[in-house]
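pasting for the record
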Amino acid sequence: MLLMRARSVVKLAAATMAGALAAVTIGVGVASAHVTVNPREATQGGYAKLAFRVPNERDNAGTTKLEVALPPDAPLASVSVRPMPGWTVQVEKTKLAKPIEMHGSQVTEAPSKITWTAEGGDANMIKPGQFQEFEISAGPLPEADTMIFKALQTYSNGEVVRWIEEPSTDGSEVDNPAPVLKLAKAPAKDAAATPAAGSKDVATVQVSDTTGTDDARTGWAITFGIAGLVAGLAGLGFGLLAWRRRPAASSAAE
């Protein structure tokens, strides 16, 4: 009987540790499974440096092209691209149905698509087990809750993965999610600091430099996984201790 109980304690501890290890593995995998934009949040009306993080998910091919569509319903008046050695970049523009204002001027066309292409065939592509970040500086960010950047990832074998699905309304996961940037409203200005009518003072544009959350999510997953391992080991120790003490208690009773 005692031997059966001891075996049960060992099995329970082993199951706990296996679950903790699975949590660590799943947490890391989800955080790096698809094309994302980092940071995940910025401020309306400000400028932000955005990085499109592209992991290579194929064992037999490399990523040779990334196409990012800028949302037409939330246009950006200004977009500049950070040069990347070994890659060419092309920025396409389109006429706006409704002009937007930028520093007192009317903007009638805006960037609509950015395409990065690896040069030299396979020499500069994103290889299996690697990732790359493609950076832009953009703004002023629109007065919208989110910006959805639909992206196409092309592999050296001709495969095209379409990261274009918008977030589901019920919060469930989608198969090929598009990168999403959440936009928070700018903090209310102090009335005392607001320039009077006719003043020549120009309001300072707020720059958002929020760090990405992928690493933070991965860190939390690893933390909870380690906590599960510790709990499993503690349970194993207490079970074995109770098993060792039971014979002595029974003899005393007799």
